[in-house]
Amino acid sequence: MNELMRTLLFLPEQGTDYARSVDHLHYFVISATMLGSAAVFVTVIAFVIVYRRRRARQSTPVVEPKPIHEAVFIGLPLVLFLVWFGIGFPQFVALQTPPKDAMDVYVQGKKWMWKFAYPGGPSAVDTLRVPAGRPVRLLMTSRDVIHSFYVPAFRLKQDVLPGRYTQTWFQAKEPGRHQIFCAEFCGVGHSAMLGEVVVMEPSEFDAWVANQRRVVAAAQDSAPVPSEDVDVRTSLVDQGRKLASEYGCFKCHTVDGTLHIGPTWLDLYGRREKLKDGKWVVADEGYLTRSMMDPRAEVVAGFQDVMPTFQGRIPAPEVAAIVEFIKSLRTSTVRPEPSKGPVYAPIPPAK
Ligand code: CUA
After folding, report:
1. Which ligand 1 atom lies nearest to the CA of residue 146?
2. Is the pTM of this model over 0.70?
């Protein structure tokens, strides 16, 4: 049944379980609407025949619809729409919540190519290699304009924006190759902004990563790296540490938990922070990036609003490296308490 419908509707293969569930909803919606239109069509034809004018000057009687008819005509479609929502919403939520153990890959859209970087190396252009059967989370940003990362076989599409991170995830079912498209018009090279997801056997993938890292390490002293790119020869974490020092982050942020001008980076990732305006946020990739680009927007309670903006000063791949460095500063898997600022007065003893 699934295969028949998929062929009838010209849908690409289903590379993930998610794709399957999306398709099932699609079959349901399209069958219901097709049946609905067919029923309307048949009714119209029947009415044309049954209620045709039989003699000249025949008048049409006034029809008063009964409330029950109105209720049925409004209620039926409403129920259908609610059922679709009931099926679709959990799918949407599932797509928005990557599993905790997902493997991170940084994705960077750029006119007109896709770049992928694994936190411990290596990085690649246009080819995303992933293991089958393991969840993969994509942390995506753009260097220039809005792109959209689209893998039809995974039924996955997510906008990729400059100056901010968006995320999505998938778990490929079996080894194979799938096309990546850009689904947001981004200039003359848009239609050529193609890539490929290569799904590998997990063991093969691990071997590939290990081998790549060896090659990269061996090349440590050779050719200089193009200046606009993050150095692919060291891990993102190491680059992040170096960059943070170059940008002067450590003048205000400590990495060992010591209170200072800004929140400490130790255990910052995943921490729930209380903001000046009373709201709470989770310090995830998105928040950390926003804090660099627009630090005044979400100041953590207890801290002074003194951080300068880095909008336009730190290129996207460097932001990724710094975020990855912050993520590496973890002492435990327990979600830490909100940051305490240096301007807190000592808490008075309870009476
Ligand atoms: Cu990138 Cu279209």
Report:
1. 1
2. no
